[in-house]
Structures are given as C-alpha cells and as structure tokens.
C-alpha cells in the first residue's frame, strides 16, 4: 500500500502545484533560515523579514536538495501567478471592448443624435415648402391680400371733422402743377403777410380733389377755373394739420387731359424760425432794421 502510493507520487512532476483537494498540509519553507550563498560582511546588518515563508504544496522538507531547485520552484510559482493575472486582465479588456463595439452608451447617443438631426431637417424642409407655395401677399390688419388686389385705404379726418380725401404723406400724381404766379405783401409793423397764387394745373387722372402742402396759412378764397371755358368751379377746402396738407374738392370731377387755373388767396404770420416766410434782422448805423 505504501509502495504503491510512493510510486504514484514518483510519477508526478516534482514541482507540480496540486489542487486544494490534496489532503496533505502545506509544507512551510522558511527562506529566512536557509544558508546564504554569500556571507555578510562584519559591518553589514542582517535584515530578517517577518514574513518570508513561501507555501509550496507537494514539496517536503527534504525535497529541496539545493538552492537552484528552491529558486526554480519559486520562479515557476511567481510566473504562473503572473500569467494567470495577465490572462484575467486580457479577458476583462476583451469583454469591455466587445461591450463597446456591440452597442453601448455611445451607440445609443449616436442613434439619438441622428434621429434629432433628421427631425430638424424635416421641419426646415416643411417650412420652406409652405413659404414657397403660399401666394405672395401683403399682410395687413384685414389679413393676407394678393399682390394685385387693391387694399382699402383708411382716410383721416380733416380739421372740420370731415373725411380728408388723401391718406398719404406724399402728394398724389392725379394733378400736377405746370406754372406758378406768386404775390406776397409782408407787413413789417404787424409782422404778418398776405399773399395770392395762381397755379396752372394739368390733370393726369380723373379726380374730384386737388391736394397741396400748406403750413400755417389761412385760406381766404379759392377758385378753380378751366382754361377752355374760363368759368370758375365751386370748390371746398379741407385741412389736415398732421400732414400739413389742404385738399380742394371740386364738383363735377376733373377729367384727364384738361388744364385748370387754381387761384388761392391767403394770409399768415412771419415765421420766427427759418421755415416758410420768415423775418430776419441786421444792424445799420447802430440801428436794428
């Protein structure tokens, strides 16, 4: 029985590490008590480690014949431990790499980014198509009107409460002046003036009013006379102070191509500034004129 057991052990490699199922207690090799190859010098201090025992399973006290076998056994043990750690590290790294390549947080975030970008592109294209296919129009309070549709203009009120016939700041082109005859009579004592003007007009479009600029003038008399008949027409004067305009309403309507003479008599005060008909002073022999 003992001889068979010894023969089985003899067939195993001498430095083989057996598994934990082996029932023998591990032999303890105290490396600190082994004889040294090189003795210490007298001045050297020997360092004795507190824990320098190496547990080796399957090795008896008398199995290590020399220092070379002890060194070889320790090197094999350390090498196999390092190889096991290296293989575990490689396995962990390969698992992490497979997780990243197979689809992790990065793939999810990239897919989400692609979806958001596609959604934004679809919205931009939809807006562009809507703007392109909408009919061109002008947006007002009444809504969207087509380009060729005539908009309803809102006319202001004149100073007397009636509707002023022209709503814009610039004068209309239905009637244009051709010639002016102007007369002014300033009064340097009262610092006011009186004046009259005859304006030759050409009608470009059929209309029932003539709009002029006027500021700070009081219209005393107004007549409109056709050049053909020399018969004056009845007129009505309206004033819109905000645009500094007056409108001369006529009845019947003025016809395109006809010519008229508009006669206006008015009065006003000499201006204190440099607009309109203004006064100015100068010195003459220590006297202000």
Automatic annotation (TrEMBL):
GO process annotations (BP): peptide catabolic process; proteolysis; regulation of blood pressure
Stretches that traverse the bilayer: 114-134
Keyword Transmembrane: yes
Example GO molecular function: zinc ion binding
Annotated region (Disordered), positions in chain: 1-27
Keywords per UniProt: Membrane, Transmembrane, Transmembrane helix
GO CC annotation terms, alphabetical: cytoplasm; extracellular space; plasma membrane
Ranges where the Aminopeptidase N-like N-terminal domain occurs: 176-288
The UniProt record lists the keyword GTP-binding: no
PANTHER family per the UniProt record, alphabetical: LEUCYL-CYSTINYL AMINOPEPTIDASE, PROTEASE M1 ZINC METALLOPROTEASE
Official protein name in the record: Aminopeptidase N-like N-terminal domain-containing protein
Organism: Scyliorhinus torazame (Cloudy catshark)
